Amino acid sequence: MYELxxxxxxxxxxxxxxxxTIKGTxxxxxxxxPIIGATVQILEIDPPIGAITxxxxxFRIENVPIGRQTxxxxxxxxxxxxxxEVLVGSGKEVVVNAKLIESLQQLEEVVVTAKEEKGQPRNExxxxxxxxLGMEEIGRFPATFNDPARAALLFAGxxxxxxxLLNEIVIRGNSPKGILWRLEGVEIPNPNHxxxxxxxxGGISMLSxxxxxxxxxxxxxxxxxxxxxxxxxxxxxxxxxxxxQHENTVQLGLLGAAAASEGPISKNGRSSYLVNYRYSTLALxxxxxLDLLGEQEDITFQDLSYKVKIPxxxxxxxxxxxxxxxxxxxxxxxxxxRYYENEREDQKLGVAGVTNDYYVSDQSYFETIVSGSFNxxxxxxxxxxxxxxxxxxxxxSQLRFSTYFNHKFSPKHTLRIGGIMSRLAFNLTNxxxxxxxxxxxxxxxxxxxxxxxxxxxxxxxxxSDKFTLNxxxxxxxxxxxxxxxxxxxxxxKWNQGTYQLSGGIGFHSRMETVALYTARQYRENGSxxxxxKDLGFTQAFHSAL
Length: 545
What we know:
This protein is mostly beta strands. It has helices spanning 135-140, 148-151, 281-287, 514-518; strands at 5-12, 19-28, 39-43, 49-52, 58-65, 67-74, 81-88, 94-95, 98-100, 115-116, 130-133, 158-160, 169-171, 179-183, 186-187, 192-193, 204-205, 215-218, 232-236, 247-253, 256-264, 272-280, 297-311, 317-331, 341-359, 364-383, 388-408, 413-434, 439-462, 467-478, 483-496, 499-510, 521-522, 528-529, 538-544. Among the domains are: 7-117, Immunoglobulin-like (Sandwich); 315-544, no CATH class. Strands 1-20-21-22-23-24-25-26-27-28-29-30-31-32-35 form a 15-stranded antiparallel beta sheet. The longest helix is centred in the middle third of the chain and has 7 residues, at 281-287.
């Protein structure tokens, strides 16, 4: 960890030793079905140890030496996989979930050199400009503060937005506003503390690194499943809690004090819970009487995230998940020191959802998500120095229903089709003092809602074990403006021995903020005009090789 760690305390249902347990699930990459009887081994140790997956694709390997281990996974008829440098510590059990690709060549006795899967994206439809960010990788990168956005700066074509206090990133010269944030498979508002309306960045991520599973980061030429993005995508996943024993962790760092708990809900089955709460270290020290920022400034933030996983026998697996955060910044005037400015910014965000994964057969499944989100940004600025006053209150809420169907016709052909329906509600007000007119002006005052609809289809064709082709279409319609966009996408990946060639092209579009579409410009007679009411989406064409 490159974040300054002051105190780390772990409590578990086991004794601390130099051995640990590795467990997880092995599934088919195209169909998502569990693979029964796969061999999972810890390589490069003597004697070798391993396990065989059960009917749920689950494996468990005990007494694994701590340190960095290499895991090999193989099954007859599938391409073997090697996962190097898995960090095994003494404090927590290690969960490794992997996907195997069915081989197109059914041979009996061959010697295969397995490919390394470190950093490979979770989404099997991704062919280019995509990488997987894991909890371990994010923690190992320097100066990231366990933040996925700051960790993304380590990749080619990604650079900071210019302000080291923000985690804003610029991808291949595109505007940071074009970044899409997704959590558990659905779009969410910007999940950062100390942000602004329309921004994709902030000062501190609301998502704790301890909550994240392997997540995908895209820098261009996105598969057809993704829409409403022109720059990049963070497709974040929350990990599942421990299904066998309870674990509790308390952590105090430079940014925040956090407490986490996870464990099984019942002894029977593999249901689990995972929850994490964090509170600002600066605010905590201030309450203890240590004022590090000075009497005029006050910074406070806190966030909560959780995930409950409940498998069922007949209705598939359900996940109940959520994220919430709030933060406040205040700058108070001090007449004695000739500070005549009064500034306050507040932010609240809440996201909650239910995900259902239902397997129709070993080759087909549905994923359905119902989610709701709420975000509010308020600020007030009053200055006698420049005789100005401004007050804004932006409230937005989103209800979303997302579903897709995935079917693996054969090892060569896989089809994924789906749609997303969103209801976007907004209540936006902005008032400021116009010195030229000598009165308060309201350039924004809107309270309404609009629909946003998306549909996509993606076909994956594997001509051989070495070549994969993905083609698809993404459709978007924004009811507020009555605009529709049809975006064709294509990508390929060619593995040839020790090197890989991949590429992709596609059209992409992104909605602007509702505040931009509805902003008002007042005339001298008191009437106003909305100059941006006919503005469409930002559009981009991506090509990558």
